[in-house]
Amino acid sequence: MTAAPIRVLVVDDDSMAAAGMTAVLSTAPDLEVVGRCTDGDEIAAALATHAVDVVLCDVRMPRMDGVSAVAALRDRAAFLMMTAFDDEGAVLRAIDAGASGFLLKDDDPRRILDAVRSVAAGDAEFSPRVARQLAAWVRDDDRAVARRDAQAKVAMLTERERELAIAVVAGASDAELAEAFFIAASTVKSTLNGIRVKWGIRTRTELAVITVRAGLA
Q1: pTM for this predicted structure
Q2: Is residue 78 classed exposed, middle or buried when 0-12, 13-18 and 19+ CB atoms within 10 A define those classes?
């Protein structure tokens, strides 16, 4: 039996950007664009009309911006945020609001497709440039208690788990990790899941934050 496609709602006030993103998503047989919105204030109605797994949402929009939409609607669908700007503030606000991932619009189309799949599966995804911003932000947070807690968590890991955690901080996807470490993608997934279980966390973003805070990356 063929699995049901991942249902995506595209939200962008730029009609050309929305059309381009829809075209990218349409190249993947396991993804289906079920609707498009031009502003964050249209998302609630779209979610009531369509069954949606992932909202692929622009950050900057004229009425309700993407971050506000995440904060209001994150319990109804997973949000994967996108922006054309390398904006550290937007990254941090989106993550704090509950976004499951953050990409830049000029990221490789394959990374965008993989990110949608990861977010639909309950994971988090962010591009390498976003990962660098996240790492810089965490390094600036010098709270001693948080640092000691992170170091204690890292001490639970095997050498391979530490290596993979460091690579995640750089924004590597599961496929890139598998290629770099000469292991199967399923092994990458199970190893990262093992780290999350040990640390009592759910997302890739949390994994990256703890790894950087511990001083590993």
Answers
A1: 0.67
A2: buried
